[in-house]
Amino acid sequence: MFRTAIQQYLKTQKHSSIPIKAVLFDMDGVLFDSMPHHANSWHMIMEERGLHLSKEEAYLHEGRTGSGTINIICQRQYGRNATEKEIQEIYKAKTEAFNKLPEAEKMDGAWEVLNKVKRDGLFSMVVTGSGQATLLNRLNDNFPNIFKPELMVTAFDVKIGKPHPEPYLMALNKGNLMANEAIVVENAPLGVQAASAAGIFTVAVNTGPLEDKVLLDAGANILFPSMQAFCNAWEELLKELRATKPNS
Length: 248
Hints:
alpha/beta
């Protein structure tokens, strides 16, 4: 089922195999069902300031740094970047609005697949553009003994952010990994672009309102309709990743 996609990746990236050691997970929309809250918060705070960012568009900016999103909207409406003061005020208001919303639930299938990854001798890392402390603090509570702080990449680490490959290149460096020794699990087109640009085999899980084509066009190697579907297919995918080589 996955062999063709894997062989295409190997051919494109000029690797002979995928000796997988780690799985790099995005957080919002992958581990937590938090994207609706982010979209609502961004939309509300922007509208209050006369800036227009629809809930639907917010999904397209998922993974971008807060300042990057704010600058794009200001450029579109005012023809300029936001000032540092504007960025700080808008992002602070967005964070406060987000924190007032109900706590985001774990994504169905996330805990199960994390345990499968650990069972199979691999380690998991979080690579997120989020700087929301409420979510970051919940990682160990919701997924105990899975993630190590020193192997996390968050908004506090990166300077450029997704869709630039910087976050995933940083994760490879922190995990002492080559690009073909990991796979990425992403739900956002910008995250898929970042992972693909970093040369990592990329699994897209379409947990939001976007068309599948958006994620595939961004560079996803394979796509699942949910985290639960990814979890259900994990054993088959891992077998193919470990066994498949070009022209095998």
